[in-house]
Amino acid sequence: MAESAVTFLVNRLTTLLEEEAELLSGIREKVDDLVDELERIKAFLADAKEDSNPQLQVRVKKSEM
């Protein structure tokens, strides 16, 4: 009886750990994508600050608040 309970728990834990590993495997790629996107936004805002268009400069300043 105890052996079957332990076997059940081991199987269940194995399944849970496999599912958790699968979920975590995609997170790094998503974080890298977000970092890339934020770098592009940062570069755009830096370029827009230097633009001579006053309306664009106002929008950039508002976005920084």
UniProtKB/TrEMBL annotation:
Gene Ontology BP terms: defense response
Record has Coiled coil as a keyword: yes
InterPro entries from the UniProt entry: Rx_N (IPR041118)
Coiled-coil regions listed in the entry: 17-51
GO MF assignments: nucleotide binding
Keywords: Coiled coil, Nucleotide-binding, Plant defense, Repeat
Domain Disease resistance N-terminal: 5-59
Protein name as it appears in the record: Disease resistance N-terminal domain-containing protein
Organism of this sequence: Rosa chinensis
